[in-house]
Automatic annotation (TrEMBL):
Cofactor comment text: Binds 1 [4Fe-4S] cluster. The cluster is coordinated with 3 cysteines and an exchangeable S-adenosyl-L-methionine.
Stated role: Catalyzes the complex heterocyclic radical-mediated conversion of 6-carboxy-5,6,7,8-tetrahydropterin (CPH4) to 7-carboxy-7-deazaguanine (CDG), a step common to the biosynthetic pathways of all 7-deazapurine-containing compounds.
Biological or metabolic pathway of the protein: Purine metabolism; 7-cyano-7-deazaguanine biosynthesis
Superkingdom of origin organism: Bacteria
Cofactor(s) annotated in UniProt: Mg(2+); [4Fe-4S] cluster; S-adenosyl-L-methionine
Glycosyltransferase recorded as keyword: no
Gene Ontology biological process: tRNA queuosine(34) biosynthetic process
Gene Ontology MF, one: S-adenosyl-L-methionine binding
Family statement drawn from the similarity comment of this UniProt entry: Belongs to the radical SAM superfamily. 7-carboxy-7-deazaguanine synthase family.
Protein's name according to its UniProt entry: 7-carboxy-7-deazaguanine synthase
Chain residues that bind substrate: 25-27, 40, 84, 210
Keyword Lyase: yes
Length: 210
């Protein structure tokens, strides 16, 4: 297949730059502790300086893979599929989720919302970033708002986005891993004073699993 043809299929969402895929335990947010199959899509221009998967940023480093092959692998392991990145909404997620739903699989996405929402999702975890604001009406569609806390100003930022989500959206504050010892105490203090929020931890890192 020629490069031009491959890129056209990527643009249509029929192939995706697949960084990695793995079966593990969801470590964060509402579904923590749940077995899930993760599909990590390459490509992200949000540019968070504390990102722990910077190798995902350059989509060109990750092989374009047909969504049929991705779904075939995913269906072998779990009925819960988590699509993450990178920023998965860089690409059209519709073809992927059509095939996942055809297998009666639960579709979850973890996104900054920096690009328009595509695809059909059973669970949307919106994790907005200061570098590139969410677009469209994803706040109203999010089931879970997860704000990564690197410094105290991120608490203000969290409230800014909490004011935009729907009344049933779950609210999480998660310490950024590299500064967790510094920020966790004031996250705990903040959640105790504002119990609409919950603390999310990267429990998979404590468990030493992917």
């Amino acid at each position: 297949m020629e490069v031009k043809e491959i890129m056209e299929l990527v643009d249509q969402g029929l192939m995706l730059p697949l960084m990695e895929e793995f079966y593990t335990i969801q470590g964060e947010g509402y579904h923590k502790g749940t077995a899930a199959y993760f599909i990590r899509i390459g490509g992200c221009d949000v540019g968070c300086h504390w990102c722990d998967v910077k190798e995902s940023w350059n989509a060109a480093l990750h092989p374009p893979t047909s969504v049929e092959a991705i779904v075939e692998n995913a269906a072998k392991y779990s009925d819960t599929i988590v699509v993450t990145g990178g920023e998965p909404l860089t690409w059209d997620m519709t073809p992927l989720t059509v095939l996942l739903k055809a297998r009666n699989l639960k579709t979850h996405i973890e996104t900054s919302g920096a690009y328009p929402l595509t695809g059909t999702w059973d669970w949307i975890c919106l994790s907005p970033k200061k570098n590139k604001a969410p677009v469209g009406d994803i706040h109203n569609k999010a089931h879970e708002l997860k704000v990564i806390v690197y410094n105290r100003d991120d608490l203000r930022f969290a409230e800014e986005h909490a004011s935009k989500v729907g009344p049933d959206c779950l609210l999480y504050l998660q310490p950024e891993w590299s500064v967790r010892e510094k920020v966790t105490p004031y996250i705990v203090e903040y959640v105790m004073a504002n119990p609409k929020w919950k603390v999310s931890l990267q429990t998979h890192k404590y468990l030493n699993i992917p």
